[in-house]
Amino acid sequence: xxxxxxxxxxxxxxxxxxxxxxxxxxxxxxxxxxxxxxxxxxxxxxxxxxxxxxxxxxxxxxxxxxxxxxxxxxxxxxxxxxxxxxxxxxxxxxxxxxxxxxxxxxxxxxxxxxxxxxxxxxxxxxxxxxxxxxxxxxxxxxxxxxxxxxxxxxxxxxxxxxxxxxxxxxxxxxxxxxxxxxxxxxxxxxxxxxxxxxxxxxxxxxxxxxxxxxxxxxxxxxxxxxxxxxxxxxxxxxxxxxxxxxxxxxxxxxxxxxxxxxxxxxxxxxxxxxxxxxxxxxxxxxxxxxxxxxxxxxxxxxxxx
Length: 305
Ligand code: RIB
Known about the structure:
Elements: E1 2-5, E2 9-16, E3 30-36, H1 38-48, E4 53-60, H2 63-74, E5 78-85, E6 90-97, E7 100-106, H3 115-122, E8 130-133, H4 139-152, E9 155-158, H5 168-171, E10 176-177, H6 181-188, H7 195-207, E11 212-216, E12 222-225, E13 230-233, H8 246-259, H9 264-279, H10 291-300
Parallel strand pairs: 1-4, 1-8, 2-6, 4-5, 8-9, 9-10, 10-11
Antiparallel strand pairs: 2-3, 6-7, 11-12, 12-13
Helix pairs in contact: 1-8, 3-4, 8-9
Alpha-D-ribofuranose is lined by residues 7, 9, 11, 36-38, 41, 92, 103, 105, 136, 244-245, 247-248, 284.
């Protein structure tokens, strides 16, 4: 069973041909709203790809809250630990320009998660279950959840996005960390621009007591390390439409595969295929593929997991 503690945001997305200058007003090529938030996207990834997942989070009592909760329930996720609180839901203002996104978030209800809510949600969790979180929630609550999870013998996975400095007291309870390149630089002081720098960054995480490191490298794939060696995962070549939720699909898929008993390298290979599909579609949770879609690509292209 996978528990995802994290954010639910309503994404307000404008597709643009270029970014406006300061003081300039310009038309978007298109606009849409859709359900996002790193926590919700990762939950959706596990559910759509066939895993058992419960989300721990908060939505506001505004027009967006119930819509986001229903959306996740529609994918088959357990939403009984998503609490509706007074005030606005989380929102994300997103521009997509030539497939690349820029995101500004307002945390709203996501910042109202409490320790009591974590206790209630993890009450029935057992050794071997997985707790996955990101950093769109209060880091103190994330740290608390990891402490509880570690005591229960769960596997703890941190996707440190958006990155910020984190106390060693939080990092010491992390089994697997999965940052992208910029998050790696913020957390370690080293941009993993080549193998030597990547090795330095990995060493930094090892020094914090984290035994498994997965660095996603955008168009260059991903790198996995859980000992002395670094294994590279080649990306599947696709034409990007919108990269939103690609990282979330990757991390959610890794957890799904680990929960199903795959080793971490094989999990990353599967995750890389799943994320490559997300990139070819507009939107966040809605763009995550199903298990059948990923299996078809793996079979058709003869991809070895
Ligand atoms: O990772 C993509 C997500 O980041 C978006 O859905 C947006 O809500 C922000 O949380």
